[in-house]
Amino acid sequence: MPVAVRPLPSSPRLAARMLDRLPQVAQRILASGLGSTATAAELPEDHFVEVLPAIYGCAHAFLHAADQGREFTHDEAAEFVAPVVRRHAEDRLPLRLLVEAVHGSARQVLREAVAISDPEELDELVDFGDRLLQLLMHITAITVESYGDVEQSIYHAEREARRALCAALLRGHPAEELAARADIALAERYTVLAIQPRPEEQPAAAATLLARRRIRLLQHTLDRLAGAPVLHTFDGTHAIALLPSGSELEEPEMSGLATELADQFGTDVFLAEIPAAARESVPATAQQAAELAELARLLGRPSGAYRLDDLLLEYQLTRPGPARDRLAERIAPLLRSPHLLETLDAHLRHGSDRKAAAAEIHVHPNTFSYRLRRIAELTGTDPGDPNGSRLLAAALTVHRLHPVPDTIGG
Q1: Is 244 left (phi over 0), alpha (psi -120 to 50) or beta?
Q2: What pTM, to 2 d.p., does this model score?
Q3: Are 359 and 347 in contact (CB under 8 A)?
Q4: Most exposed among 7, 71, 76, 226, judged by the fewest C-beta atoms under 10 Å?
Q5: d(C-alpha 101, C-alpha 38), whole Å
């Protein structure tokens, strides 16, 4: 049953003043909504970055309607609210959290109206409250309906079918039936992408929500760039994505993808690409791509896209075998001296420029030189000698990927 709203005077001072103050109060409305829920407070500030424009747009339209003395309809509210709610529903943000946030925001709007109203405007303030309650009713209904729609949508089922298909391809299992269920034609060759954001410590509840948000962002970004649904198994921390070779992205686009994902995730993203892998070789190729992405991260490389040629030497150094084990043992005497490992790393990156290397780790050049001599004594390899420097660089690379246990003196 429609809610009756008393017409406002022809020139309502309260709604007009609220409209003028909206740029200043919109952020407080958002903060009050998020502050009403403990889980939201654990999430990064930019997690709800898309909400502020929706709050501003909806509040502006609502206040403008109130200023004109007309009803703000359900459909008008849905234009601003529904897209944001659907995105949160896809992330499986708890419905209760969002409803609590909406009500917290509405309370802030009422507080703002009370703060600028005069005693003689009591009737107008009551009318404004009626209109605000009607808006809250619309937003609550839109939120509940949107959550139900997403949960029951065909898109949700198709997304799960695509994940199952990708998992089958990565395990080398038969995939024809799953491909039919996902309505995707199997390709003979795939470009295999390993995507690894830099790990971050997050509270458990926030980590789950962040993972779901990242899954949504990755899917939308890959689908847009490839022009078709992309198979992936992203869990929020590691991803393997499979692009049919006919829709391969060029190398500059891969770099752009890594940059875009880093911006969206708010952290470094390491992407490894192996093109044109035959379907039957996808499991082994995916393993290699994952190793390359992890290698780039552990080596301290910048966020970006990498291929095997970019990490050829380092990748080969970390392959299993007696030489790798001997290299790892070479660095073992330094494991109980983190300051020596730090010094060696700075030396290898700066070469003969000891002054710059010493400045980077905030020690005097003489101290830096002493540490290099100590490294030579402990390892039997002089880092100042070109051959020794190369050997220790290889040993440090192996140690980062396959650290040996510290058993000295144990």
Answers
A1: beta
A2: 0.60
A3: no
A4: 7
A5: 10
